[in-house]
Amino acid sequence: TISMAASVVACACIPNRDWRHLSLLAGVLGASACVLWLSTTGLATSNHALANIIAVWGACVGTIPASFLIDEVETLDKADMPSAAAFAIVVLATPLILVPSLMGTAVSEGRVAAYETQRELVRPERPVVAETLARGMDRFSRLGLDGKQTAVLSSGTLGAIVELECATMGVQSGLRLLALLTGVLGACVAIPLLMFPGNRLTNISPQ
After folding, report:
1. pLDDT tens digit sequence for 137-191
2. Are 174 and 112 in contact (CB under 8 A)?
3. Burial 58-97, CB ≥16 within 10 A → b, else e
């Protein structure tokens, strides 16, 4: 996105290493906050609001390549590049394997918990549920359907809405977990770099 590209260029132009690490910390915490913000959206959220969330998230994520990759690459000797690349692949691959599995579990558990809650709330004897079913039957009767069909379609529509709400709540649970993991893992990387920036060139190869 445009916001992500602008953020990458802006952070790449920062000459001071301490400011780069500070922008890295701000970026990972901002990305975590944006994911948490995204977890509050639902079926009624407008496209404009979603676009704003994604734009802010892109601006936060854009600080990571320039603040971390560029800055840390220039501290390495050329002889250390292969070992550093292998380590980076391992570090990047591990979250890509673990996070989707954890998110899938969180989404499934959140969906089941929401379904159990909705099953207790959506009962025909409750006045609000009965009123909703009556409005649905009235709506379908205006379309020329008979009473039996309107009852079936009304209850089916209500059930579909409940299923969508449960799925939404499950996704929200997964996004909250992702926000937590992003914030914790990002802070664990950014805070040590901010406190111990290191030297310009470091040779990590065994002598």
Report:
1. 887 787 777 777 888 888 888 888 888 888 888 888 888 888 888 888 888 877 8
2. no
3. bbbbbbbbbbbeebbeebbeeebeeebeeeeeeeeeeeee
